[in-house]
Design brief:
It is a single chain. With 234 residues, the protein is α+β, with helices and mostly antiparallel strands. It folds into 2 domains: 121 residues, DNA methylase specificity domains (Adenine-n6-DNA-methyltransferase TaqI, Chain A, domain 2, Alpha-Beta Complex); 83 residues, no CATH class. Helices cover 29% and strands 21% of the residues. The chain is built from 6 helices and 12 strands.
Length: 234
């Protein structure tokens, strides 16, 4: 990826991004969960904290914290309402700067935001964010980077879901072995399925060798495997 970014040129945020603040909502203007008319995600400095009736922005936006959780980065598609503790950014022209590329770049370089934080309570100024610089490679290369990182993101999400399933089933496994229970009372009769894919079609350095699942208790769990191999530098 470093080789790909070698073809990039530096550009000031303000030249390629529309950068906007948010607007706070009182607690009586939002709900903690989706309900009735409250269907619009309400974003604070650390992500979604509730739902409201009206949206402030629509489309693809990258949301980061202006206060408190400095360095948090969120990719948003569609209608949403950000609080006044956020900074909201979207590309002025996606043929120059691809939004998803900007999201991944900022996510992996969020230290530049953390270093800007000043004062007793963490906070950054929007005027300072406007002056930051981002390396912008040709659009085709941006899209190649996004394809690889999106696939890895999907694998991480599937792996996290698998781990959560393991956490949920562990007490039942203990109950079965130590209380002489029945497997029928441990595992769901219709186990969830997870589509398994590999990254080998995207890059030869990434593959998905199978992992053994020998326990009969675990055979109904969704099987998700990932292995990432890095080529040594020559």
């Amino acid at each position: 990826m470093c080789d790909l970014l070698g073809q990039a040129h530096l550009e000031v945020f303000d030249n390629v991004l529309e950068i906007r603040g948010g607007k706070g909502k009182r607690k009586d203007e939002r709900k903690e969960e989706l309900t009735g008319e409250y269907q619009i995600p309400y974003y604070d400095s650390n992500g979604i904290i509730g739902y409201t009736k009206e949206y402030l922005y629509n489309g693809v936006n990258i949301v980061t914290a202006r206060k408190l959780s400095i360095g948090s980065v969120h990719y948003v598609e569609g209608k949403y309402h950000p609080s006044d503790d956020t900074i909201n950014m979207t590309s002025k022209n996606e043929t120059i700067l691809f939004n998803k590329y900007f999201y991944y770049w900022l996510l992996f370089n969020n230290d530049i935001l953390k270093r800007m934080s000043t004062g007793i309570k963490p906070g950054i100024r929007m005027s300072d964010v406007r002056q930051l610089k981002i390396p912008i490679p040709p659009l085709e290369i941006q899209q190649q980077i996004v394809v690889v990182l999106t696939q890895i993101d999907s694998k991480i999400k599937a792996e996290s879901e698998y781990i959560e399933k393991m956490r949920q089933i562990t007490p039942k496994v203990f109950s079965y072995y130590f209380n002489q229970g029945s497997p029928d009372t441990i595992l769901p009769t219709t186990p969830p399925t997870t589509e398994t894919s590999t990254l080998s079609s995207i890059t030869p350095e990434i593959s998905s060798p199978p992992l053994p699942m020998t326990s009969p208790i675990l055979t109904d769990l969704p099987k998700v495997k990932i292995s990432i191999k890095l080529k040594p530098k020559t």
